[in-house]
Amino acid sequence: MTTEPSFSIPAHPKRRYPYDEGVEYEGGTEFELVPGEERATPELAATVRDLLADGPYRYGDFHDLPMPLWLVRDEETADVFRVAVRDGTVRLHVLPTTESSGLRRFYDRLRAVDADCQWTVERRVDAA
Q: Which residues contact 120 (CB under 8 A, 6 or more apart)?
């Protein structure tokens, strides 16, 4: 029997706007999607980039970072979250209005790209 991972969000981050410092987030939840086999980060980043390009996503990337990072909006669920590829994993960062359904759909689409790959989902919560 296969157990599907839960994408329940026990803690959303709180958004702060410090004077002259942009936006900061305190606390929150992150989901780390770990492929079952060794995959090089560039290959994983290309897979995520292709998945986003296929839709139903609107997304933008951050060019000056040492890792691939996108701000993503699922046009079907209206969920907005960040997606990063780092150290051979895909990380979904919950934002203040993110709901579980958008994260679940992203995960399902990622699994569909390579049906033979087994993914492990780990949830990290920072209650701040």
A: 33, 34, 36
